[in-house]
Amino acid sequence: MNPLAMETFLVVVQSQSLTKAAKELHIAQTTVSQRLKVLEKELGIKLIERGKGIKQISLTPSGEEFYKLAEQWSFIQQSTKTLQSQGPKLGLVVGSVDSINTFVLPPVYESLINYQTPFDLSIQTLHSAEIYEKIESRQIDVGFVVRDRIHPNVIVTEVFTNPMVGLCIKGNSESNLKKIHPSELNPEHELYMPWGHEFQGWHDHWWGSLSSTRIKLDSTHLFMKLLKNPNQWAVVPQWIANQALTTGNFSVFQLTDPPPDFVCYKLTHRKNTALTQQALSIFEHFLQLSVSARIDDQIKISF
């Protein structure tokens, strides 16, 4: 496989333009086109749709599938260069959904950064489906998701569960109540976060799959900033409510018919190298300490 052609293909797809790819690679656009043709000829498949006046590239179905393989190839190339230049080192590539990366894993990352032996750490925030795929293809070493799925080479382990509670700002009509029935909440004022299939089923039960929820988020960074309107409310895992309460601006209420507990799952590949397994053992140690601390924090919320 031609390394230059592979690299060029990846840059073209990522930049979505032959012109931009040429500038990034510091070569002529004709050279970019030639390299792509060489790659297509070598593979015997068409990767990119071509046509006059088309400024943005479009992958063929075969091109889309090959792009996944090309990403894996790039990862292997980079890992090989690191091994050649630095030798074997402890390190992990971690992929996690936003909420876990934001509220649970930072203490683990801090412990690894300060670990006695140099520890290489790469952190990615991804959606659950992407994490499963990247564990399967060995692009990441350990992942954290909120959805339990079956993948042939992926080990799925439950890390912890957490009750779901209601959250609103102080001054909200719900903020003076200890317990609220879901039917009393107006879905038009909800800040909705997708907490997994079971939560979605509970949500659909009370408000329907076509509910009038106006604001849907997939980022906890935005969530804490946008929950400011006195009419707004949200349903969140208790550990996030703990964090919100520390600001002094929020109130927590129980739901008389709550959704199923939030579940965090850890993903690892069924077959790891000895060095990766050693790094995972260190990571697991600090993870258990962090989770235990989170569980202890839960008793600080009183209704």
Please provide a written account of the structure:
This protein has helices at about 5-15, 20-25, 30-45, 60-85, 100-105, 105-115, 130-135, 195-205, 220-225, 240-245, 275-295; strands spanning about 50, 60, 90-95, 120-125, 140-145, 155-160, 165-170, 180, 190, 215, 235, 250-255, 260-270. Residues about 300-303 have low confidence and may be disordered. α1 (about 5-15) crosses α2, α1 (about 5-15) crosses α3 (about 30-45) and α6 (about 105-115) packs across α11 (about 275-295). By secondary structure, the protein is of the alpha/beta class. It contains eleven helices and 13 strands. A hairpin with an 8-residue loop joins β1 (about 50) and β2 (about 60). The strands form four sheets. A five-stranded mixed beta sheet has the order 4-3-5-13-6, with helices on both faces. The termini are far apart. It is globular, with a radius of gyration of 24 Å. The protein is about 45% helix and about 20% strand.
Write the layout of secondary structure elements.
Elements: H1 3-15, H2 18-25, H3 29-43, E1 48-49, E2 58-59, H4 61-86, E3 91-96, H5 98-103, H6 106-113, E4 120-125, H7 128-136, E5 142-145, E6 154-162, E7 164-169, E8 179-180, E9 191-192, H8 197-207, E10 215-216, H9 220-226, E11 234-237, H10 238-245, E12 250-255, E13 262-269, H11 274-297
Parallel strand pairs: 3-4, 3-5, 8-12, 9-10
Antiparallel strand pairs: 1-2, 5-13, 6-13, 7-11, 7-12
Helix pairs in contact: 1-2, 1-3, 1-4, 2-3, 6-11
